[in-house]
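Changelog note: in this version the structure field was regenerated for every chain. One regenerated record is shown below for reference.
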Amino acid sequence: MLTKRTLIRTAIKSFFIQALWNFEKMQNIGMMFVLMHPLSKIYRGDAQGYHNALKRHLDFFNIHPYMANIVIGVVLGLEERVSLNNEDLEAEINTVKSTMAGPLSAIGDSFFWGLWRPVVTLLVCLAYFLFFNVNDYSLAGTLFIVFGFLVIYNIPHIILRFKALRVAYRQGTSVIVYIKKWQDFKIEAKLKLLGFLLLLGIFVIFLIRARLTLLEFGKLLAIFLVVEILKHKKASTVKIIISVLCVFILLAYLKVV
């Protein structure tokens, strides 16, 4: 059984899974790099078994980097069974890698890049508007935005990398149950609501500090309504930009701006 130290070392190496990509098999070399150390422990004294295991993991592999350790943990558990019981699990290992990678990548893309990243951006912007003068462009404000974003954004996926590897290694393919429980909390819906509230907070602070007249507020509201209507009609980004420009041109022609 792999020690806690080996699992920690494996989790650290997983940060480099994207260090070497290729067009044919994507992240396969990075995957093999992550697995080299734990496989050497699993197949200690069995050079041929170690060689065969490494060769197995040179096949095609591609996954969202933050979710990779879930697959890695399950794979290490299967490799232990191969080493201890001489089971022929090559087909099962390849199936696990291919069938889990797609759904986990979709979860990672939608949550971390599609939801968590925008929410953290809004949170940092709101904090900046609250604690800094937006007209100063100070170094302190710039550093606050950069490091504030990096710290808050990275905390969840760093925790996930270490915890997911340990749980997946111990639970095997039943780790899917834990993923299902995570989805039952409806975190995505709660983050969407939080994102809306943060955006509303930024808008309110902007209105208070800008001290807009009623006419200027009406112009902003008109632009906002145009964008929302086009989004509701599922218009493309290009059409939205062109429509906003048309609103500005119309307001300029009417000498409202």
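Spot check on this record: The mean pLDDT is 82. The chain is about 75% helix and 0% strand.
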